[in-house]
Amino acid sequence: MSDFVRIVEVGPRDGLQNEPAMVATADKIELVDRLSATGLRSIEATSFVSPKWVPQLADAAEVMAGIQRRPGVAYPVLVPNEQGYERARAAGADEVAVFTAASEAFNRRNTNASIDESIERFAPVLARARQDGVRVRGYVSTVLGCPYQGAVPLADVVRVARRLHDLGCYEVSLGDTIGVGTPRQARDMLLAVAAEVPMAALAVHFHDTWGQAVANVAACVEAGVRVADSAVAGTGGCPYAKGASGNVASEDLVYMLHGMGIDTGIELEALADTGRWLAAKLGRATGSKVGRALAAA
Ligand code: HMG
Ligand code: MG
């Protein structure tokens, strides 16, 4: 098994979509550029959802126009539908991410559609992306619990993940949107999906609401996954998921993985500096324990 884990940095998208205050476009651009210099290979740069639904990321096109793209780094952007795909392409995106959920109740709150309807909306995105040579990542939310529905049957997670993979998503990210899962549940969920979708096409995406996120990633890496999403400074959350809090902090993940003897290609100090820089812009301390420990050392 490979001893490399690819981290998908989602701070500029998942992190900033949930900030109560507007972050200046220039700061968003600087954030992506700083992250690009840390050795990250994938940085989700912004989101082309409806600006009425997520006003925090209404400047997505300006962000894409301002960032410096490094060779070897992918800059996926979130899109919910064909309109989002067209905006993303006009802004120069060459990788996109589509999203749905394993819970009907959550998906309706987040996209005003059933799971089937949301997939119908982005099916044309996958078709056009194939023609355009654009890579598509897929997200399944609420894989370990839903704030509206409660428990989410494993069979629903497996079915939706498999559909996204069958539709042509090169990678399916399994999201514990509200951060309620614990390591054994996380591992069992991953292994159930991996029985239908190749492990090499799976990623995990943990929020840290109940303090389980780092442990959950460890359990999933031990079970074989080699891609994990995280957000610098532990920012993030979905505005349409009641009680959701930050993503697992990228700094904490990198420290843990390096400690496990797993390479990420990322320079921890540079990442932690970026996390503290971002936290200062947001007017608070970094949400990364490793970022704080490094500053105090
Ligand atoms: P709707 O209101 O049902 O859509 O929203 P509509 O098609 O009826 O359109 C309504 C208006 O929005 C129209 O404008 C459209 O043009 C416009 P109007 O005629 O009223 O002036 N519109 C758009 N504008 C710009 N870009 C677009 C776009 N689409 C429509 N792409 C919709 C449906 C899906 C658009 C909406 O519900 C939406 O944008 N939802 C996104 C919510 C969101 O971003 N949530 C957070 C991301 S998901 C997440 O965080 C979870 C994740 O991190 C994984 C995890 O943690 O589990 C990925
Ligand atoms: Mg998320």
List keywords for this structure.
43% helix; 12 helices; PYR_CT; TIM Barrel; 9-stranded parallel β-sheet; binds magnesium ion; alpha/beta; 297 residues; 9 strands; 13% strand
Write structural notes for this entry.
Pathway: Metabolic intermediate metabolism; (S)-3-hydroxy-3-methylglutaryl-CoA degradation; acetoacetate from (S)-3-hydroxy-3-methylglutaryl-CoA: step 1/1. Strand 3 (46-47), helix 3 and strand 4 (77-78) form a beta-alpha-beta unit. The protein contains 12 helices and 9 strands. The chain has a 9-stranded parallel sheet. Helix 2 runs antiparallel to helix 11 (268-282) and helix 8 (183-194) packs across helix 9 (213-222). The mean pLDDT is 97. With 297 residues, the chain is an alpha/beta fold. The chain has one domain (6-296): Alpha-Beta Barrel (TIM Barrel), CATH 3.20.20. 3-hydroxy-3-methylglutaryl-coenzyme A binds next to helix 4, helix 5 and strand 6.
